[in-house]
């Protein structure tokens, strides 16, 4: 049985003081969660929330990670730096990183491999735009993204990582894929893993849905057999809202 993982991506929100308040409110609301719970604050908040989360069931995640161990990469943060701060997960290849900051499938692969080497679980994001979906390109696109993102990663590591299907057209737009659409595309992603690594790895890897999952739709999305959790944006910025998703 795959243990679902629900991760809150705070994006560029919450000062360190606001972050401390949010996780303090969240802890008692999710202490009995049957899924794995992750919060991914901005880098500047990680040190502030780390001591508050110690001893709880909430894991600390980062929103990105660089592939180099160190060096002249202004504004970037290495996996070793994150590991020392107690980070367990790192989002790589989010659609906003691809859209605004030039992330490619190649850099996503390099970041994922660096995270794994440091003992951090990457949440590898894939997904299509509205025009790509309307043109019938979804299956081919996510298959290609998965294939390139997992390049040279051994099966044992693939079984540990998380893939997030985030239809770009359903992020921050209020639109959500139907539970059937989400389940079908995640099945395509799992089939891509199966063709690369075989049935055991495909059955083990956890694949989240990341397109405007919230308190109102989490239960029906999580009822689908292929969906192993969610990558939550706006609904993760209020403890009450996020806890409703976690306790679907």
Any overview of this molecule?
This protein has twelve helices and eight strands. The protein has a single domain (5-246), classed as Alpha-Beta Barrel (TIM Barrel), CATH 3.20.20. The chain is globular. Helix 1 runs parallel beside helix 12. By secondary structure, it is α/β, with parallel strands linked by helices. It has an eight-stranded parallel beta sheet. Strand 2 (36-40), helix 2 and strand 3 (58-62) form a beta-alpha-beta unit.
Mean pLDDT: 96
As a whole number of angstroms, the C-alpha radius of gyration is 17 Å
For the secondary structure, the number of strands is: 8
- Our estimate of the beta-strand percent is 5-15%
Query: Number of helix segments?
Result: 12
Structural class: alpha/beta
Cα separation of the termini: 18 Å
What count of domains describes the coordinates?
A: 1
The quaternary structure here is single chain
Largest sheet: 8 strands, parallel
What is the approximate shape?
globular
CATH level 4 superfamily = Aldolase class I
The helix/strand series, from N terminus to C terminus, equals: EHEHEHEHHEHHHEHHEHEH
Low-confidence stretches: none
CATH architect. name: Alpha-Beta Barrel
Question: Which keywords apply here?
Answer:
about 250 residues; alpha/beta; TIM Barrel; 12 helices; globular
Write the layout of secondary structure elements.
Blueprint: E1 5-9, H1 16-30, E2 36-40, H2 43-53, E3 58-62, H3 79-84, E4 89-92, H4 95-101, H5 105-117, E5 121-126, H6 130-134, H7 138-149, H8 155-158, E6 162-165, H9 179-197, H10 199-204, E7 206-209, H11 218-222, E8 229-232, H12 239-246
Parallel strand pairs: 1-2, 1-8, 2-3, 3-4, 4-5, 5-6, 6-7
Helix pairs in contact: 1-2, 1-12, 7-9
